[in-house]
Amino acid sequence: MNYLEFEKPLAEIEGKAEELRALARANSEMDVEKEAAALDKKADVLLKDLYKDLTPWRKCQVARHPDRPHCKDYIDALFTEYTPLAGDRNFADDHAIMGGLARFNDQAVVVIGQEKGNDTKSRIERNFGMARPEGYRKAIRLMDMAHRFGLPVVTLVDTPGAYPGKGAEERGQAEAIARSTEKCLQIGVPLISVVIGEGGSGGAVAFATANRIAMLEHSVYSVISPEGCASILWKDAEKMREAAEALRLTAQDLQKLGVIDRIIKEPLGGAQRGRKETIEAVGKALETMLKELSGKKPEVLIRDRRQKFLDMGSRGLAA
Amino acid sequence: MNWISNYVRPKINSLFSRREVPENLWTKCPECGTMLFHRELSDNLNVCTHCDHHMAISPRDRFTALFDGGVFLEVKVPEPLADPLHFRDQKKYPDRMKAAQKATGEKEAMLVAEGEVFRTPIIAVAQDFAFMGGSMGMYVGNAIVAAAERAVKLKRPLVLFAAAGGARMQEGILSLMQMPRSTVAIQLLKEAGLPYVVVLTHPTTGGVTASYAMLGDVQIAEPNALICFAGPRVIEQTIREKLPEGFQRAEYLLDHGMLDRVTHRKAMKDELVTILRMLMRQTPAIRGELPVPADAPAR
Ligand SMILES: [Zn+2]
């Protein structure tokens, strides 16, 4: 278990309980269960307390937790016959973007998402979930295919943002993001997005311009990272707590602003402490959202999607 | 829209702005260091007469130079919610807004106009980098939607002069949502069969480049304009990659296939009209110093 900085007191208690039990295993005469159970209880209370009212910055940390289920975990668990389709037919295949044909509850769909990787090797291979232009262009290709064959599109969003690299800029990542967003607004099939971790700026919009947008309870979605915002507006990257607060990047605030449609509850202690339950909850939400859109005509799906974004911004937050 | 009152106003505005600037004011070219007489510089559309460096130009000055006789009608932009997030960094967002309004004399970072260019009716939009870095918030989104709707209604092409540091952070996610929102507006225009020409000016970066500013039927840039998603400083800081000479500048993008043309500001009017009239299947333009239209522009 990887603990976050704010979970340190919890790590200590859970560590102590673990230590006691290890001692008992080594020495059969020791009876520690009572003491260990008391520690467990204490840990439970603390966990509840810590997660009761997470600050926006803590949510950012939870959203980035390395043990959270990632795109690949959802695809493996919720979809069958996943058949990755690679490449942008132009330059390369972007390993930060997973995508292809799959079945969701037996229904054929196109699934696309950013994958961050889960160890050093896969993280590097996946470029930490940061797409290059090829990734957006692959997504465009897949969305076109979905449109042609009438398949719903499911996107799983989890990215720190676009990749600030020389090659990505030279190959026109701004244009690639713009075209991917444009494509999202053109396809006559249901488009459903779930922000499962980090919704980082343009890199997220390019996939999440959808008919229905859901966010996991502790995921975040923002125009800029709190660190980036802090360094620009506060001239001090260490002010990320203040920036996270000011940016209103939590699922709860985004729902109030009318930017997202639904929040998917996470187990106590975040998705990383209940991966299976989290994945199941996302599956349920996908099922509901797909049902809401099934049977709608292509032109209605396009019109509604466009209207949804045209209408955005009419709601502010209470003072 | 009342033609007469709107016709008179820009004239009065230009009188005032002339008076505010003392005749003996000099500007130093940031590129070559030459001291330029203000009048000489503004007559040259804020392009250095010595080295051709393109300095910033306000949307109002740009439109005055663009439209026949310097006359245009402002298209009304619906007011968005003010400060929807109650954003506060070291300053309150409304205070930053007030400061920007005072410094520029403008309400927001985008100006929408309709008028004629060599007798070609167009809608034009210009972003004001002097106003909070031209940042894209809900007003800018509203301006693009209003411009596209007006263009569709009057069956005119749309020309957009982009200049922005990116999205307006003080509007958080709502500024990010202007990426899809402006894209919808451009789609409406395109589906009506109307041309959309983007002129990228220095600098155009971030979410603006990654949405409406890269979706033109024709993409033109002013010389040496910085055009990118992630800026050179961000790349150098995060990836520590050494960047080549001229990286992310207009000419570099042209070489890399990301632009149609790089065009000098003084040749822009002529070029825009040439392109637009062909795309609109109109006869060649009548060029030259055209007088102020005697009546309202053709509808
Ligand atoms: Zn100069």
Which key terms come to mind for this protein?
heterodimer; A: about 325 residues; alpha/beta; 2-enoyl-CoA Hydratase, Chain A, domain 1; 8-stranded mixed β-sheet; 14 helices; 8 strands; B: alpha/beta; two-stranded antiparallel ribbon; 11 helices; about 15% strand; disordered N terminus; binds zinc ion; AcCoA_carboxyl_beta (chain B); fatty acid metabolism (chain B); Acetyl-coenzyme A carboxylase carboxyl transferase subunit beta (chain B); zinc (chain B); carboxyl- or carbamoyltransferase activity (chain B)
Quick summary:
Chain A: InterPro entries: Acetyl_CoA_COase_a_su, ClpP/crotonase-like_dom_sf, COA_CT_C. The complex is a heterodimer of chains A (319) and B (299). By secondary structure, chain A is α/β, with parallel strands linked by helices.
Could you explain the architecture of this structure?
The complex is a heterodimer of chains A (319) and B (299). Chain A is built from 14 helices and eight strands. Chain A is of the alpha/beta class. Chain A has two domains: 48 residues; 252 residues, 2-enoyl-CoA Hydratase, Chain A, domain 1. In chain A, strands 1, 2, 3, 4, 5, 6, 7 and 8 form an eight-stranded mixed sheet that branches. The model of chain A has no long low-confidence stretch (mean pLDDT 95). With 299 residues, chain B is of the alpha/beta class. Chain B has two domains: 54 residues, no CATH class; 224 residues, Alpha-Beta Complex (2-enoyl-CoA Hydratase, Chain A, domain 1), CATH 3.90.226. Chain B is built from eleven helices and nine strands. A seven-stranded mixed sheet of chain B has the order 3-4-5-6-7-8-9, with helices on both faces. In chain B, helix 5 packs parallel to helix 7. Chain B is globular, with a radius of gyration of 19 Å. The two termini of chain B are 12 Å apart. The N terminus of chain B is likely disordered. Chains A and B meet through helix 7, helix 8, helix 9, helix 10 and helix 11 of A and helix 5, helix 6, helix 7, helix 8 and helix 9 of B. Bound molecules: zinc ion (ZN). The site of zinc ion (ZN) has 8 residues of chain B, from loops. Zinc ion binds next to loops of chain B. Chain A: Its EC number is 2.1.3.15. Chain A: Acetyl-CoA carboxylase is a heterohexamer composed of biotin carboxyl carrier protein (AccB), biotin carboxylase (AccC) and two subunits each of ACCase subunit alpha (AccA) and ACCase subunit beta (AccD). Chain A: One of its GO terms (biological process) is fatty acid biosynthetic process. Chain A: Belongs to the AccA family. Chain A: Component of the acetyl coenzyme A carboxylase (ACC) complex. First, biotin carboxylase catalyzes the carboxylation of biotin on its carrier protein (BCCP) and then the CO(2) group is transferred by the carboxyltransferase to acetyl-CoA to form malonyl-CoA.
